[in-house]
Specification:
two-stranded antiparallel sheet
């Protein structure tokens, strides 16, 4: 974490990373759709939300840091509309940064 008065990172931290595909799939909740995540990961993007108080997940594809072993140049992504995993190359995707772990 950054010290008082320092400007660094994102919301005060500089140890963000792209999650692997297993981490992204771990927040999928197949009982929900649009987005297919538990409520803890989609508290809503409403007026008054801050980056520290809300967790918003859109029902779209999110990049993972996991590359597809049989598909050079492709990485796995997770579609949070249905909770499916696919592989993509140059498509537009969202990212969900995480801290810690691994």
């Amino acid at each position: 974490q950054c010290g008082a008065g320092e400007l660094c990172g994102f919301v005060g931290y500089s140890d963000w990373r792209l999650p692997n595909v297993k981490e992204l799939v771990s927040i999928v909740n197949y009982e929900n759709t649009g987005p297919a995540v538990s409520e803890a990961f989609n508290t809503g993007c409403v007026d008054g939300c801050t980056l520290e108080s809300c967790s918003c997940t859109f029902y779209s594809n999110y990049w993972s840091s996991t590359f597809c072993p049989r598909c050079p140049g492709f990485a796995w992504d997770v579609n949070f509309n249905y909770g499916t995993v696919g592989d993509s190359r140059n498509d537009l995707r969202r990212v969900r940064a995480v801290r810690g772990g691994l």
